[in-house]
Design a protein that fits this description.
Largest sheet: 5 strands, mixed
Number of domains: 2
Strand content: 15-25%
CATH architecture of the largest domain: 2-Layer Sandwich
Family: Belongs to the RNase HII family.
Catalytic activity: Endonucleolytic cleavage to 5'-phosphomonoester
CATH class of the largest domain: Alpha Beta
Order of helices and strands: EEHHEHHEHEHHHEE
CATH topology of the largest domain: Nucleotidyltransferase, domain 5
GO molecular function: manganese ion binding; RNA binding; RNA-DNA hybrid ribonuclease activity
Domain RNase H type-2: 1-236
CATH superfamily of the largest domain: Ribonuclease H-like superfamily/Ribonuclease H
Protein name: Ribonuclease HII
Number of helices: 8
Length: 245
C-alpha cells in the first residue's frame, strides 16, 4: 500500500513564501522512516531536519515541493481565503500525483487548518475536480462531486500523528528555512519573518522603502509601536496597519 502526507511551512509569516510538501511512501519506506525516528519538524533541531530531509527524499517514491510567493498569496487572497489557497495547492499536488504515478496513494494524510476538518477535505476535492475537469469560472462548487478513489484524511496536528505528514513537514520546513537564509544574505537579519517577532517588525518599519515587494506579504497586518509624545513617560502604543510597498 502507498500512503502520502502533506504539510506546509510558513503559513503565517509576513516575509517569504509559504512552502508546501507532499511525500509518498510504500510500506518499506514507512519502516525506514520509523527507523530514522522521523518526527514533526517542530520537534527536532535544524541540523537534524537537514539530515532527515536528504534521507526522506531518498526513501520517498515521489515528493513534491511547492513554493507560493508573497505576491501570489496577496493576489489570490483578493478572491479566496488562505485556507482555500492551501486546498487549491494540495489539489494541484493530487493532479500531479495522478499524472506521474502508476499507482495513486491509497490514503493521503493532510495537516488541516480548518476547525471543521472534514470541510478542508471537501475544499481539496472541489478544487481537484475543478482542475482535472477544466470547469469554467461558473463551476458550481457547492454541488460538485466529492468522490475520488484516494482516501483523504485531514486532521489538526496531523504532523504529529502520521509519520508521512511528519516527513512532509520536514521537507517544507527545510525548504522554507533555506529561502529565508538566502533572503537574509541579501537584506540582513530580519528575525523569523513572523509579524509577532519584534525584530521582524523593526526591520519592516526601518526598511519600508528598500524591501522589494516580491518578498513581503502586503496583505498581512503588522503591529508597529508608536511613541506617544504627549505622555512624559513616552508610553508606547501599538498601531496595527497593513504594509504599504
Amino acid at each position: 500500500m502507498i500512503t502520502s502526507g502533506i504539510d506546509e511551512a510558513g503559513r503565517g509569516p509576513v516575509i517569504g513564501p509559504m512552502v508546501m510538501a507532499c511525500c509518498c511512501f510504500d510500506e518499506n519506506g514507512i519502516v525506514k522512516l520509523k527507523e530514522l525516528n522521523v518526527k514533526d519538524s517542530k520537534q527536532i533541531t535544524p541540523k537534524r531536519r537537514e539530515f532527515l530531509e536528504e534521507k526522506i527524499k531518498e526513501i520517498a517514491l515521489k515528493y513534491i515541493i511547492k513554493k507560493i510567493s508573497p505576491v501570489e498569496i496577496d493576489e489570490t487572497r483578493k478572491q479566496i481565503s488562505l485556507n482555500d489557497i492551501e486546498a487549491k495547492e494540495i489539489s494541484e499536488m493530487l493532479s500531479e500525483l495522478d499524472e506521474t504515478m502508476t499507482n495513486m496513494p491509497s490514503v493521503i494524510y493532510v495537516d488541516s487548518p480548518e476547525n471543521i476538518q472534514e470541510n478542508f477535505t471537501k475544499k481539496i476535492l472541489k478544487f481537484y475536480f475543478a482542475n482535472t475537469r477544466k470547469f469554467s469560472k461558473s463551476f458550481d462548487f457547492e454541488n460538485s462531486p466529492t468522490k475520488i478513489s484516494v482516501n483523504i484524511i485531514s486532521e489538526h496536528f496531523a504532523d504529529s500523528k502520521y509519520i508521512e505528514v511528519s516527513a512532509a513537514s520536514i521537507l517544507a520546513k527545510v525548504e522554507r528555512d533555506r529561502e529565508i537564509e538566502n533572503l537574509k544574505k541579501i537584506y540582513g537579519d530580519f528575525g523569523s519573518g513572523y509579524p509577532s517577532d519584534p525584530k521582524t517588525v523593526t526591520f519592516l518599519k526601518n526598511n519600508e522603502s528598500q524591501i522589494p515587494r516580491e518578498i513581503i506579504r502586503k496583505s498581512w497586518n503588522v503591529r508597529f509601536k508608536e511613541e506617544n509624545n504627549k505622555d512624559k513617560k513616552e508610553k508606547k502604543e501599538y498601531k496595527q496597519a497593513k504594509l504599504i510597498f
